[in-house]
Amino acid sequence: MRNKIHFYKRCLYLCVVMLATVSCNDWLDVEPKSQVKDKDLFSSETGFKEALSGVYSIMTQEYLYGKELTFGMLGVLAQEWDYQPMVYLDDKDYTYESIQTEIRIDSLWCGLYNAIANTNKLLGEIDTKKSLFTNPNYEVIKGEALALRGFLHFDLLRLFGASYAEDPAKKAIPYVTEYTPEVFPQKTVAEIVDMVLVDLGNAAEYLKSDPIYTGKAIAETTDNGYLMNRQVHLNYYAVKGLMARAYLYKKDYQNAIRCAMEVIESGKFEWVKQSNLTNEKMADLSFSSEHLFALNVVTLESRAETYFSGSNSAFALDESSLLDYYEGTQDYRYLYQFKSGTGLSAGMRYLKKYDQLSGDGSTVWPVAYRNKMPLMRLSEMYYILAESRYHTSGDVLGALNEVRRHRGIGDLGTGDLENFNSLLVSEFRKEIIGEGQLFFCYKRLNMPTIKRTDADMTGLGLYKLPLPKDELQNPGWVNNR
After folding, report:
1. By C-alpha distance, which of 253, 217, 259 is closest to 238?
2. What is the DSSP letter of 183?
3. Half-sphere exposure of 281 (CA within 13 A, CB side)
4. Phi-psi category of 340—alpha, beta or left, where left has phi over 0 and alpha has psi -120 to 50?
5. CB 223 within 8 A of CB 140
6. What element of type H or E holds 112?
7. Fewer CB within 10 Å, N- or C-terminus of the chain?
8. Taking 70 as the threshold, does the pLDDT of residue 11 lie above it?
9. Is 247 helix (H, G, I), strand (E, B) or coil?
10. At how many degrees (to 10) do helices 378-391 and 396-405 cross?
11. Are 231 and 294 in contact, with CB atoms under 8 Å apart?
């Protein structure tokens, strides 16, 4: 019976230790003592709101999207940085079996499945408690929970599974749909993507009650403003964006186009204006108006100070490397999202998009810009559109140039499409540095190498993080390598 309880017991134990500061983690136990706490938590609408907030809180932790799945481990694996803390040197060389890297990988696995466990607990309770909710909170909370389950499984697949391009029939990870210590079987890459899309499709139906979709105005006096600020939740259009991302992964280009166009044509997300970037004390550094979905990381200021300044814990680029990202110094991203070091670090360039500003003295820095860790943005929809059209039909250049025009740089021409995958990566890496998506882009395209390294990514299976060793003891599980 040890194998039957191993999967969740191990992850939940490890994550409870790491989540000591998260407000909602006390109810994560699967031990009998948690039953009273569960009963209390899920006895009111407020409890369900807190439970959902707890999942987002888990995601903001540094061992997940608060660092490792954005600018930390995934940034290093994508060779985004010239300089990174010493603890990442093995990651940079794809030496996954080193002790520090193995611990980091285990934390990703356990942290993501722990968030899924909490999501499943909420989903297991909500349908029997529907009478607790005021409209439209039942539909929105259930929709977000389903979307989170799909989102988290999809990233687990992109981390630990083969890409669709490598082998859609290869066994990858389990898709866990219940709050239980039972071990779920490994599913193939294709099965996981299809299950992700089922959860996201169901989520989208529930989220047709989302104010961002219905257009209903929400004031702070309406349920204490609970349904305000939908960009820091997996809202309806973020779900559609994620569906576009998943359809692209499985090379279903027509559906990828359909979902991306729904987001674009909604008009809900506006390109950042240069006028909102030029004032260094008031700038929208993360281009927040373009976020489909971002996490609200309340400690982002201290993290930016730690990881993007002249300390030994910093991630940085040389000026020559930064210019290699961008075609010229007029690109808004080059101009406004990087800063120079000082003193002994004067030659280094640090990312600014996570810096927190104080305002210009007379005006405070807008709340809408604060503490945002973007996980999906408008520009990605145009890249999905371009790639999908390239493989089917339609205006590829128009989609790529739409992004470029809003970054202050000139249009591409037909000749630039000769090596499309290289062009796509070049455009994408300009946009999402420090956001964790570049490694996944290389992997999805099954590119033999990653820019700035000669490692044989496909030949050595380096796009797949190794499954935690203990999990391979589960009956019927196979090595993903």
Report:
1. 259
2. P
3. 7
4. beta
5. no
6. helix 99-126
7. N
8. no
9. helix
10. 160
11. yes
Helix extents (H) in 225-314: 236-249, 253-266, 300-307
Token pair of 232 as six digits = 């820091």
CB atoms within 10 A of CB 367: 8
Residue 233 near residue 218 (C-beta atoms within 8 A)? no
Instruction: Tell me how far the alpha carbon of residue 407 is from its chain's centroid.
Output: 22
Question: pLDDT class for 396, splitting at 50, 70, 90?
Answer: very high
Rounded to two decimals, the pTM is 0.93
For 309-356, the pLDDT digits (tens) are: 988 899 999 999 999 999 889 999 999 999 999 998 899 999 999 999
16 has pLDDT over 70 = no
Structure tokens at 206: 């529930």
* Cα–Cα nearest to 187, from 202, 200, 199, 170: 170
Direct distance between the N- and C-terminal alpha carbons of the chain, in angstroms, rounded to an integer: 27
Q: What are 426's two structure tokens? A: 């070049």
Using only the alpha carbons of the chain, give its radius of gyration: 22
Residue in 91, 85, 121, 86 with CA at minimum distance from that of residue 103: 91
**Alpha carbons 370 and 285: distance in angstroms, whole number:** 9
Place of tokens 């009111």: 44
Q: Note whether 295 and 66 are within 8 A (CB).
A: yes
Separation of alpha carbons 391 and 386, rounded Å:
9
Task: Report the alpha-carbon distance of residue 271 to residue 287 in Å, rounded.
Answer: 8
Token code pair at residue 141: 């909370």
Burial per residue of 280-316, b for 16 or more beta-carbon CB atoms within 10 angstroms, e otherwise: eebbbbbbbbbbbbbbbbeebbebbebbbbeeeebbb
Q: Considering the chain, what is the average pLDDT of its residues?
A: 92
